[in-house]
Write a structure and sequence with these properties.
The chain is an alpha/beta fold. It has helices spanning 2-20, 22-26, 58-66, 83-91, 105-108, 111-118, 130-137, 141-153, 162-165, 181-186, 220-231; strands spanning 30-35, 47-51, 72-77, 96-101, 122-125, 156-160, 170-172, 195-197, 208-211, 238-242, 246-251, 255-260, 263-269, 292-298, 304-308, 313-314, 318-325, 328-333.
């Protein structure tokens, strides 16, 4: 009883302190700012940083921050704290780093919150649960502000893990939770295999669907199911799988660098759609063993050059072909067609 009463008193104190904090009154959703609180304007260079989670890659994050021109960096998330503030502020010279906890549609439509985002010279979407991002942010003023940063202000943006998931044209939205590769391959129409149109429209991500924690969580199979479901609608989608402690950077021309310890996996669906894609059967997707072409590029500290995303000239890694036969993913060595 005493412990419960003490916790309740502490809860009331926290509410009172929160109400008295000028930052919370003046900047809703703000978890705090590290650096100068005054807004500045700098010359930015557009770009996109796609990270696989499991730990940030310093050189990749430096790439993002440098493209901000030393301006104001904003982190958006629906859970978590201010872990990026000190890390990014000390990593590269910027005016400020602010973290926003936007965990409701009310906050995503708040004029002050939206203006903070619009004032950013770099935007980064933290990890978490991408369904929260979809349900809280899609179709809001925040969504419009992100598009403004991409298309008008042309600032660099990035995301890791769940933040990566929502940057593709297509999105594994985790509406019904996560799913393993084995389950997805056995039942590609499983309710947890939920794919939607991405609500952040970046020109570099047209036709792409991403996945993170890739090799570490054995996500190759479920990524194949994502591509199969999109391909069944007479599209030829691309997939980008990114390992942990690895990140892919793209400048505005589509030039690729792969940073970090592990690999980035570039998938391109072939011309043929899946043979079996229904609720009763496991996935089968064959085309003389070449349903999907895969190029795996190993990251490095300075960044491994990997070609260009826009013209399809991806290189610098190991090439192979994937197919799925009755729910089993098969990998074949590359042979010239």
């Amino acid at each position: 009883m005493y412990r419960s009463l003490l916790l309740f008193k502490l809860y009331l104190v926290a509410i009172a302190l929160n109400a008295q904090n000028p930052m919370n009154r003046l900047r809703p959703a703000s978890l705090g700012i590290t650096g100068d609180t005054a807004d500045i304007k700098t010359a930015t260079s557009p770009g996109l940083l796609l990270a696989g989670g499991g730990g940030d890659v310093d050189e990749a994050m430096r790439w993002l921050l440098q493209r901000s021109g030393g301006g104001d960096v904003v982190i958006i998330r629906a859970s978590g704290g201010t872990g990026y503030n000190k890390y990014l502020y000390e990593l590269e010279k910027v005016n400020s780093v602010e973290s926003l906890l936007i965990n409701s549609r009310e906050l995503a439509n708040n004029d002050t919150v939206v203006q903070i985002v619009r004032n950013a010279e770099a935007l980064f979407i933290a990890g978490g649960d991408q369904w929260n991002y979809v349900q809280y942010w899609k179709g809001t003023q925040l969504n419009e502000a992100i598009q403004y940063l991409i298309m008008k202000k042309k600032v660099p943006i990035g995301g890791t893990s769940a933040g990566l998931a929502i940057l593709g044209q297509y999105c594994f939205d985790a509406k019904n939770g996560s799913i393993t590769s084995d389950t997805a391959l056995r039942n590609p129409m499983h309710p947890k295999m939920s794919i939607s149109q991405g609500f952040i429209k970046h020109p570099l991500m047209k036709g792409w669907i991403t996945d993170s924690h890739y090799a570490q969580r054995n996500r190759q199979g479920r990524h194949m199911v994502m591509l199969a479901k999109i391909s069944s609608k007479n599209r030829r989608p691309n997939g980008l799988g990114i390992d942990e402690k690895t990140a892919v950077a793209l400048d505005d021309k589509g030039t690729l660098l792969v940073f970090g310890e592990n690999e980035a996996w570039f998938l391109k669906a072939g011309k043929k759609t899946p043979q079996t894609l229904n609720e009763q059967d496991a996935l089968t997707w064959q085309w003389k063993g070449r349903a999907v072409k895969v190029i795996r590029v190993k990251g490095s500290q300075p960044g491994t050059p990997a070609g260009n995303l826009l013209n399809g000239g991806i290189y610098g890694g190991q090439t192979e072909y994937w197919e799925v036969v009755n729910g089993t993913l098969l990998v074949h060595p590359y042979l010239p067609e």
